[in-house]
Amino acid sequence: MTALNDIHAAIWKALATGAGPQRSPLTMWQAATNGIGEAAGMPQVRTVVLRDADQTGGAISFHTDVRSAKVAQLRADPRIALTGLDLGNLLQIRLEGRAQICADEAERRAVWNAARQHTLILYRTPFAPGTPLGTPEAGHVDARGDDDGDGDGYANFCVVRVVLDRLEYLDISPDGHRRAVFRRDDGWHGAWIAP
Ligand SMILES: Cc1cc2nc3c(=O)[nH]c(=O)nc-3n(C[C@H](O)[C@H](O)[C@H](O)COP(=O)(O)O)c2cc1C
Fold first, then answer.
1. What domains appear along the chain, each with residue ranges and CATH number?
2. What's the pLDDT at 74?
3. Is 30 helix (H, G, I), strand (E, B) or coil?
4. Each residue of 118-163: pLDDT tens digit?
5. Does the Cβ of 63 fall within 6 Å of ligand 1?
6. Could you tell me the CA-to-CA distances from 16 to 50, 55, 70, 104 in Å, in that order?
7. Which residue ranges does the record assign to the Pyridoxamine 5'-phosphate oxidase N-terminal domain (predicted)?
8. Å from CA of 185 to ligand 1 middle
9. If pLDDT is split at 50, 70 and 90, which confidence band does 116 have?
10. Residue 191 Cα, ligand 1 centroid: separation in angstroms?
11. What backbone torsions phi and psi does residue 113 show, to the nearest 5 degrees?
């Protein structure tokens, strides 16, 4: 019988693979926040790329535009839930935690410097995500240049670290059919739950 420890290890292995340089089924995650303003009370969900998995700190991170709605939502309420799906293995992983918008300038610069260049071009746009545009082309980065002074988009670059307090693993493959949850207090505590 599979031990809960093995499932916990499998979750972190999957997160590490998802955050790795090669695209994998767990590269893309759906991240849900709580809406604010007109969307108060309405869940807000969107795709983000998993950028880092830190098992020691029990955290993951993703990159975003500091002007995006999700950042305003997370500043108002840091609670966030993420779901990843490995369809080939009929495996779903769900995460819950609290987001920290990186305010450490040295860390933000180091992450920017380590990121692949093509992933950073989008941050050069003068248009905050969600800005109305006359045409799709008007929003292309090279159509307007940038507005953040030094031209590289760094001012718009935001690292969101999510300190996790709940992990959930659901395997519905024929040989699997198991669901486990791990909650954190002084360490991670796992339990089997009904799928
Ligand atoms: C394949 C894919 C990957 C994406 N990755 C990210 C990402 O890593 N970070 C991000 O902020 N938005 C990413 N997006 C865009 C978001 O899904 C979303 O549309 C955008 O961030 C605006 O969301 P918001 O208005 O809720 O803040 C991605 C979209 C797609 C289709």
1. 4-116+156-193 (2.30.110.10)
2. 98
3. strand
4. 889 999 999 999 999 999 998 887 644 545 456 789 999 999 999 9
5. yes
6. 9, 9, 24, 23
7. 39-119
8. 31
9. confident
10. 32
11. -65, -30
